[in-house]
Amino acid sequence: MVDINLQSENDILIGEDNIETEPESIVLAYLRNKDSILDHDGLSTTRKKSSILENVPKMETIHEDKQFSSFSGQLQISELSESSLDVYIPSYPGSPRSLSIRPSSSTGSIIEEDPVVLKAIEFLHQDRDFLLAAETGNHRLLEIYIRKGTDVQQIDHIGRNALHFAVCSNNLRAVQILLVAGVNPNIKDNVGMTPLSLCLMRRPSLTVAQLLFDHGAVLVPRSDPMDTGLFIQFVMMCRTPTEVEQGILKLLIEKGAIINDPNAPGGRQALHFAAMSNNTTLIRILVELGADLHMRNHRDEEPIDVADTFRCTEAYELLCDLIDNESSRSTRSLIIEPIQDKL
After folding, report:
1. Which of 24, 74, 77, 253 is buried most deeply by CB count within 10 Å?
2. Which of 189, 216, 243 marks a domain boundary?
3. Contact of 278 with 312, CB cutoff 8 Å
4. What is the b/e burial string over 95-113, where b = at least 16 CB atoms within 10 angstroms of the residue's CB?
5. Where in the sequence is the domain holding 49, given as residue range(s)?
6. Residue 21 lies in a domain
7. Strand 75-77 to strand 68-71: parallel, antiparallel, or no bridges (unpaired)?
8. Are 134 and 142 in contact (CB under 8 A)?
9. Any bridge partners for residue 68, and if so which?
């Protein structure tokens, strides 16, 4: 490996044949001398072999006040020699959004004529102050923008609207203002999240969830057969369900979530996941909400079988008790019904 120091002033001559009278690029100079350097006897990688750079153009440093001769919409570069290796990267004054793109090259003409490119540039450079106010939970600023007639349905580059941001800001007043203004509560962003999804997965709030449902939010149907759906996703997120999370589970069932869904991916129900995670509290809640103890997954396993497979002892014992209680109730009902018929 050759150590090339572009800043070295100490040259080690390799041979007279390697000296060129005409300047050439650093790449050509290195490639031309590479073999002779690598084959040179006793050459140490710790020494600096900059003789290959003799007569190669030096890097130039141009003072900032001499880089531009004028700035009037077009930039003019001055005092750069023809053999300079310096890379010119302009820095524009002021905000990039204030620049007018007026390239003089053929590439520039393509940009000016391509409506897709122009639309992309306009999208990236436009202000999103309304979305920023929602993201920061600034409900007073939101009210001002709404009174001014701002487009309340605007979205960002990944499809999030103001409600997505307001839900994450945890500002109830901001969410209320946007819902009253008519912001769509069911729009999906580019990763499939709705404001309701974010409410449940990022900042679980029964109050916000109820508010979203009151203003038209719905449980969006699965987008593909492998989509578990919002209800099961929320169940999987619950470890030891809090009072708020228990209220959300009940609310989701009331709003149409299917607790025993034969079309769930792999036939796995919420109760299967609760059994798999040895979550006895969640198992009790789901059974109270109507979960079927005998629903089978794609492996023909009931929740109790899943608990046994994953050695979830507490879940297994609880499911055994629940099944026994269910059997006892069924037996009692079979005995009582004939007696009532006789009476």
Report:
1. 253
2. 216
3. yes
4. eeeeeeeeeeeeeeeeeee
5. 1-58
6. yes
7. antiparallel
8. yes
9. 77
Specify burial of residue 321 (Cβ count, 10 A radius: 0-12, 13-18, 19+). Answer: exposed
Question: Do 195 and 310 fall into the same domain?
Answer: no
- pLDDT tens track for 55-71: 544 444 444 444 444 44
- Work out whether the CA dihedral 306, 311, 312, 315 comes out positive or negative: positive
Say how far apart CA 130 and CA 146 lie, in whole Å: 9
The Cβ of residue 273 has, within 10 Å, a number of other Cβ atoms equal to 20
Q: Say whether 71 sits in a helix, a strand or coil.
A: strand
- Per 3-state DSSP, what percentage of the chain is helix, strand, and coil (rounded to 5)? 50, 0, 50
Residue 247 and residue 322 in one domain = yes
SS3 (DSSP) at 94: coil
Please say whether the beta carbons of 87 and 115 come within 8 A: no
Output the six-digit token pair for 222.
Answer: 């699965």
- Tell me the two tokens of residue 41: 């006897």
> Domain check: are 112 and 212 in the same one?
yes
Token pair 């820095």 in the structure block, residue:
91
pLDDT digits (tens, 9 = 90+) for 279-318: 999 999 999 999 999 999 999 999 999 999 999 999 999 9
What whole-number distance in Å separates Cα of residue 197 and Cα of residue 51?
A: 65
Using CB atoms within 10 Å of the CB of residue 224, give its burial: 0 to 12 exposed, 13 to 18 middle, 19+ buried. exposed
Q: How many residues does this entry show for the chain?
A: 343
Q: What six digits make up the tokens of 248?
A: 């959300």
Whether 139 and 54 map to the same domain: the answer is no
What single-letter DSSP state applies at residue 13? -
CA 61/CA 43 separation, integer angstroms: 32
As for how many domains the chain has, the answer is 3
